[in-house]
Every structure is written in C-alpha cells, then in structure tokens.
Amino acid sequence: MEKIIEINVDKCTGCRICELGCSLRHEKRCQPSKSRIHAIIWAEEGVSVPVVCSHCDDAPCMDACKYDALWRDPATGAVLVMEEQCIGCKMCLVACPYGCMGYDRRRHKAFKCDLCGGDPECCRLCPTGAIRYVSADKTAVDRKRSFAGSIAQHYRV
Predict the structure, then answer these.
(1) Residue 139 pLDDT > 70, yes or no?
(2) Per residue in 5-58, pLDDT tens?
(3) Claim to verify: residue 85 and residue 128 sit in the same structural domain
(4) Bridge-partner residues for 38, per DSSP?
(5) pLDDT of residue 124 exceeding 70
(6) What is the pLDDT of residues 63-82, one digit of tens each?
(7) Last residue of some domain: 93, 112, 131?
(8) Are 99 and 83 within one domain?
(9) Torsion region of 6: left, alpha or beta (phi above 0 gives left; psi -120 to 50 gives alpha)
(10) Count of domains in the chain?
(11) 46-74 as b/e: b if 16+ CB within 10 A
(12) 122 and 156 fall within a common domain
C-alpha cells in the first residue's frame, strides 16, 4: 500500500528541524532554502504548518513539464525530478498549486520532495510526531483533506 506524509498541525511547534534535516540530507548542509519541506509560521495565531509535496495523483507539475523531467516512482508513488532531463524552465513551479517545487539557481534545476526513497527524513526527525509517514488508507487521506480545508478556511494568507 502507498504511503503519504501526514501533518498534525496541533503537534507542530515551528522548530524547523524538518527543514534542517531535509536540507542536510539532500544538500549536505543546513540551508532551509534548499529544503523540500517548509514550515509556514503564523506567529500571531501561534500556528506552524509544515508544507510538503502531496505527490498528487493528477500532478499538475508533471503535466506542465514538456521535457519529461518529472516522473512517478512506482515503488513509493513519489513524483520525482530527473535532473538530467530538467532544463530549468520553471513551468513545474508555476503549475504546482501548493508551491511545493523549488528551484536551484546554482544548478538551474527544479527540485522537490522525493520522500527520501521511502524513509522521509522530516518524519524521522520530527521531535513531536507532527510529521508522520503513514499508510495512505481512506482515513489518512480524509484527514489530510480535512486538515487542508481547515487551514484554508481559518488561516488565509
């Protein structure tokens, strides 16, 4: 069964360890701007929300890429960037409705969450359990949708 990253906003403290761990794993340095996960913090409301790619079934980023640089890993279900195919046109960044694509200006390539090959670093390092890698059963998917709806309703940016 496929798995998904599940966020529990009530448990997130905004510590950003997820960002540091992700950038360290992928870039070999603690540089949150290169992280594949980003914590959005609304200090006034006291709310922190980690945002990461959902690896959409009907992925707009994949549809936008005319160079076949994005593909789905059959083992994890993750939508991945094939760097050697990416020309750096940024169409995938524009297409992602959640802003989960990144762009490396030094390499001129897009980047995004790759689920760390099935063992997401952000989930492993989260000290409160706010970020978990769980089976994508109907209950987990429904919780994810409910969470997204509540964030959209209460915390419009």
Answers:
(1) no
(2) 999 988 999 999 999 999 999 999 999 999 999 999 988 888 899 999 999 999
(3) no
(4) 51
(5) yes
(6) 999 999 999 999 999 999 99
(7) 112
(8) yes
(9) beta
(10) 2
(11) ebbbbebbbbeeebbbbebbeeebbeeee
(12) yes
How far apart CA 52 and CA 9 sit, in angstroms, is 13
E strand or H helix that includes residue 118: none
Q: Which two tokens stand for residue 50?
A: 């980690």
The pair of three-digit structure tokens given for residue 117, joined into one six-digit string: 């090959």
Six-digit token pair at 130?
A: 């706010």
In terms of domains, do 88 and 64 share one? yes
Phi-psi bin for 114: left (phi > 0), alpha (psi -120 to 50), beta?
A: alpha
Q: Which domain holds residue 5?
A: 1-53+117-157
Task: Please list the helix, strand and coil fractions of the chain in percent, rounded to the nearest 5, in that order.
Answer: 30, 20, 45
CATH code, domain carrying 68: 3.30.70.20
Confidence (pLDDT) at 137 = 79
Adjacent-strand bridge partners of 135: 3
Q: Which two tokens mark 116?
A: 């760390």
Phi, psi of 54 (to 5 degrees): -95, -5
